[in-house]
Design goal:
The structure holds two protein chains of two kinds. Chain A is an alpha/beta fold. Chain A folds into two domains: 8-134 and 295-310, Aspartate/ornithine carbamoyltransferase (Rossmann fold), CATH 3.40.50.1370; 136-293, Rossmann fold, CATH 3.40.50.1370. Chain A is 36% helix and 14% strand. Chain A has eleven helices and nine strands. In chain A, the strands form two sheets. In chain A, strands 7-6-5-8-9 form a five-stranded parallel beta sheet. By secondary structure, chain B is an alpha/beta fold. Chain B has two domains: 3-47 and 373-427, Roll (Urease, subunit C, domain 1), CATH 2.30.40.10; 52-360, TIM Barrel (Alpha-Beta Barrel), CATH 3.20.20.140. In chain B, 60% of the residues are buried. Classes of the chains: A alpha/beta, B alpha/beta. The A-B interface holds A 86-88, 106-111, 113-114, 117-118, 130-134, 176, 179, 202-208 and B 188, 191-200, 202, 204, 268-270, 310, 313-318.
Chain lengths: 326, 428
């Protein structure tokens, strides 16, 4: 494991599998009456959120608290940041208070990378989503969910996603979730297909380790998991697609389309969903849809990441392998 | 009158010769010249060039004296071997009136390090809507001949057409910053493989190329000349090549950084590589070098763009665009053009002095190194190699992409009308 978690592309297959296996152990903690481990007692983690994201922030917060870390939540609104303080000064202020790790969400792509590499601070940096670049813990929780569902909770331990066919549908261009997932799923041996209108695919996507299609129906029958990405309604004002209805007709997942998927295939969504746009209520509320599970799994995966980056050498629960520092 | 004898200098890279400066003028060029009463500079095989001319410099004064002033900028220019710089109009207030251009011109005169020729804005406030008083700026003491909204594109086709036509009355030229604004909303770096990975807003080559294509056609239609600022893509080269073959009166410049650096560097998210136009791909770099060698691109211009430290010591999206360039330009050109065999030193003199002086109608600059000409000269130690150390810059700003990079060549002496502004690498 590295010192920081900035990009899913930085993870080796073994790193990723170790995180997923550790997350399974963390998940068992959630089944206990007292959902708490002493692992990070005395360590301080700050959740530094320059963008509003209640769900990601509380997921990290739950993970930190279950590991007994001291948690500081810092949101940019109403803080010195809104009065013009720079990222550098904010980070150094927090570090001066003795922070061991910074979980950062920022609207600017590359901000976590800058924080980790500019010599501004010494703390571990965990990327909780930067601009349209990366969201590595999201990709990890997605991979965790896929492994559980497609390989098995116990059967999956030590395994990757070799040969599983994963389809991502929606606004790839503006999606850090898509970038992180393509990187991680490729590392884990899955075959990824991106489906979107050409306007919502970045120029340069041809260099990514995945297939690209403009046609959803032809990929559904060959998918073990279909992940829908949120499509913001405002995008149609910038001519990315003509209307909401046209988008839904061509790229939305409804009951008819879902019925073409193989029986074992699952439907995923990182949330928040725009019902009626990329996903119908019928699909969102079906048994095949893992949206709620993904939220649960998010806490386990973030616990695993925090533990492996910060926890040092002690086993997290039982059997957890020690992490080697780079 | 003071005399200086430069002994054993390779004039334009040729055989070693002696050059005698008498007052503000070159008195004699030959071998075995007498040094009586003259200060002697042993050139010892260094290359002597006409003083360099930069058609594209941001001196930031008035308004952003925290990043550069006319004095610090002209000191940086002298350090880099320049004797004349054209100061871009995007100051605060904008250089869109006779008053502002005269102020910049006067500050240049007072500096004494380098002639400063102000560039006038094409439109009021660089807003692209209403022509500035171009005639008044031309008739002012500053005698403006080059007009540019640089930093912004004159995107309205009708305004561009009128500007091209209007400046013909006094022989002016419009220098276009080619950037289609709608195609570059939110743009952060070259659009391609790297931007797709980094999740930074893409700046497509077509945003530059479409404006260049439009403007060469406009220039042809109204019979005007047009100059293209900091051309950065292989496609732009093709369009300018086509326009020249058709007889259109177009000239073009390339920056040193676009001859050397590519968008791969943006993977560091270090804003020192953030610039407008953005760093492009290896393919573009090679096309630009070839075009500068074959004359499709006429000149090298630095686009020297000083910024204070805090505007670069931040996340990429928040950072300012631009790099300083005056003090490293000749080294980068040696690295990319001379040491690669694409251009000889006479070619460098042509692209960095003769042609820019001609495009900007800078009298007394870009002249031959021969008797009777103004003594605007630059002496370069081409055998030198060393790491770039921004701490030694004369510029007030340090935002160079070359920190720690080893580059060849070092300007040791610069003379402005016979007066040494740089001696042994030190400003006078």
């Amino acid at each position: 494991m590295q010192r920081h978690l900035i990009s899913a592309a930085d993870l080796t297959r073994d790193d990723a599998v170790l995180i997923l296996d550790t997350a399974e152990e963390m998940a068992r903690v959630a089944d206990r009456p007292i959902k708490k481990l002493p692992t990070l007692r005395g360590r301080t983690v700050v959740n530094l959120f320059f963008e509003d994201s209640t769900r990601t922030r509380i997921s990290f917060e739950a993970a930190e608290k279950r590991l007994s870390a001291d948690v500081i939540n810092f949101t940019a609104k109403g803080s010195s940041v809104s009065k013009g303080e720079s990222l550098k000064d904010t980070a150094q202020t927090l570090e001066a208070m003795g922070v061991d790790a910074v979980v950062i969400r920022h609207g600017a792509s590359g901000a976590p990378y800058r924080l980790a590499t500019s010599g501004w601070i010494d703390a571990h940096v965990i990327n909780a989503g930067d601009g349209t670049h990366q969201h590595p813990t999201q990709a990890l929780l997605d991979a965790f969910t896929m492994r559980r569902r497609l390989v098995g909770r116990d059967a999956g331990l030590g395994k990757d996603l070799d040969g599983r066919r994963i389809t991502l549908v929606g606004d790839i261009l503006h999606s850090r979730v898509a970038r992180s997932n393509v990187d991680l799923l490729h590392t884990l041996g899955a075959e990824v297909t991106l489906v979107a209108p050409p306007t919502l695919l970045p120029v340069g996507v041809e260099s990514w380790p995945c297939e690209v299609s403009y046609d959803l129906d032809s990929t559904l029958t060959k998918s073990d998991a279909v992940m829908l990405l949120r499509v913001q309604r405002e995008r149609m004002n910038a001519a990315f697609f003509p209307t909401e209805r046209e988008y839904s007709r061509r790229y939305g997942l409804d009951g008819d389309r879902m019925s073409k998927m193989p029986d074992h295939a699952i439907v995923m969504h990182p949330g928040p969903m725009v019902r009626g746009m990329e996903i119908t209520a019928e699909v969102a509320d079906s048994d095949r849809c893992t949206v709620v599970e993904q939220v649960t799994n998010g806490v386990s995966v973030r616990m695993a990441v925090l533990y492996l980056l910060l926890g040092g050498n002690e086993p997290a629960v039982t059997h957890a392998r020690p992490t080697e520092e780079k | 009158m003071s005399k200086t004898l430069i002994r054993g200098a390779k004039v334009l890279g040729g055989e070693p010769q002696d050059v005698l400066i008498d007052g503000a003028t070159i008195a004699q060029v030959g071998t075995g010249l007498s040094a009586e009463g003259a200060e002697v500079i042993e050139a010892d095989g260094k290359v002597l060039l006409p003083g360099l001319v930069d058609l594209h410099t941001h001196l930031r004064e008035p308004g952003r004296e925290d990043s550069e002033t006319v004095l610090t900028g002209t000191r940086a220019a002298a350090s880099g071997g320049y004797t004349n710089v054209f100061a871009m109009a995007n100051t605060f207030p904008v250089a869109d009136t006779a008053g502002v251009v005269e102020q910049v011109w006067r500050l240049g005169q007072e500096s004494g390090y380098c002639d400063v020729q102000p560039v006038g804005a094409v439109t009021v406030g660089l807003e692209g809507a209403k022509l500035a008083e171009l005639g008044a700026m031309h008739e002012s003491a500053a005698g403006v001949t080059v007009f540019s909204d640089d930093g912004k594109c004159v995107h309205d086709a009708v305004i561009m057409r009128r500007a091209l036509e209007y400046v013909k009355a006094f022989g002016g030229v419009v220098a276009q910053h080619a950037q289609e604004p709608r195609l570059t909303e939110g743009a952060q770096m070259n659009e391609g493989v790297v931007s797709a990975e980094l999740g930074l807003g893409g700046w497509p080559a077509v945003a530059e190329e479409s404006i260049i294509a439009r403007d060469v056609l406009l220039a042809e239609h109204v019979g005007s000349r047009v100059h293209i600022c900091h051309l950065s893509t292989a496609g732009s080269v093709e369009i300018v090549r086509w326009a020249k073959s058709r007889g259109i009166d177009v000239t073009a410049e390339v920056t040193p950084h676009h001859l050397l650096l590519t968008d791969e560097l943006v993977r560091s998210y270090n804003p020192v590589y953030k610039v407008n136009p953005p760093l492009r791909t290896e393919r573009d770099v090679l096309a630009l070098r070839e075009a500068l060698a074959d004359g499709t691109i006429d000149i090298v211009a630095t686009d020297h763009a000083p910024h204070p430290h805090e505007d670069k010591d931040c996340e990429w999206a928040a950072a300012a665009m631009g790099m300083v360039g005056l003090e490293t330009a000749l080294s980068v050109v040696q690295e990319t053009m001379v040491d690669t065999g694409l251009l000889d030193w006479a070619g460098v003199a042509d692209r960095m002095s003769v042609k820019p002086a001609k495009i900007g109608q800078a009298t007394g600059h870009g002249r031959p190194v021969s008797a009777g000409e103004p003594a605007n000269l630059t002496l370069v130690d081409t055998a030198y190699r060393g790491q770039v150390d921004p701490a030694g810059f004369a510029s007030r700003s340090r935002n160079t992409p070359y920190e720690g990079r080893e580059l060849p060549g070092r300007v040791t002496h610069t003379w402005l009308r016979g007066k040494a502004t740089l001696v042994d690498g030190k400003l006078t």
